[in-house]
Write a structure and sequence with these properties.
The chain is 33% helix and 35% strand. It is an alpha/beta fold.
Length: 236
């Protein structure tokens, strides 16, 4: 696993590096760790990170801008934002934050976050086998934003477009990865990786410059909210 840390506060960088290495060794995870004290050095790097820890407030370019550039090159890099200010959370979610933590990083929360990230990375290789038209297709589950029922067919919306699958919605949902797919409605199942906000009547997902409004059932709202908070690691 390839990880990176970017923080222009050298003391914070050193502490985060020590904590992260200690946790990775405890979890028996083989790793390669790269540290950067400026976002400009990170920007120049050609390393394809599995996980990247970014400070939000940095000179020249903040962590939110750096995350956008990283995702343009490697969209499956999992971003952990680390900051002194909770006020950045909404904007961080818009940049597909895998986690958003206020400094100092809590050890138990880090363990939970790393374990969740490992599951996410392993799931990246999971495919959904469907038939589109008469052609068998394998879709990466990481690329699916949401699926929804449309009469006797299922619409699958991905980062590359939407597809109609002549297969019952329940059959498709049963094969989706339960780690990060969750129903917001009886007819909609959402990939939590793309959720940027939600209310009691809609879920907003974003991929690149595209935004998607997905139905939220009032009956599902509390359960969905609880699952999303748990998935974000806020229950630690």
């Amino acid at each position: 696993m390839i990880l990176g840390i970017c923080d222009n506060d050298n003391d914070c960088l050193f502490r985060e590096k020590e904590l992260l290495e200690d946790v990775l060794k405890e979890l028996c995870i083989e790793y390669e760790l790269h540290c950067f004290d400026s976002p400009s050095d990170l920007e120049k790097s050609d390393i394809r990170f599995d996980i990247l820890f970014l400070d939000v407030e940095m000179e020249y370019m903040n962590g939110l801008q750096a995350a956008e550039l990283i995702h343009k090159k490697h969209r499956h890099t999992l971003i952990f934002f680390v900051t002194n200010y909770e006020g950045y959370m909404d904007e961080a979610l818009n940049k597909h934050a895998f986690r958003f933590w206020v400094k100092p990083i809590n050890r138990q929360r880090l363990i939970y976050g790393i374990e969740s990230a490992v599951k996410e990375i392993n799931a990246a290789n999971t495919k959904l086998d469907v038939t589109i038209g008469k052609r068998p297709v394998r879709i990466s589950m990481n690329d699916i934003i949401y699926v929804c029922a449309q009469n006797k067919i299922t619409s699958v919306t991905t980062t590359d477009g939407s597809f109609e699958v002549k297969e019952p919605y329940k059959n498709i949902c049963a094969r989706l990865n339960k780690e990060y797919f969750f129903p917001s409605h009886a007819s909609y199942c959402v990939n939590l990786n793309y959720v940027v906000k939600y209310t009691n009547d809609e879920v907003i997902c974003r991929s690149g410059d595209k935004e998607y409004s997905i139905f939220m059932s009032k009956r599902k709202y509390r359960e969905f909210s609880s699952r999303f908070i748990e998935w974000m690691g806020e229950n630690i």
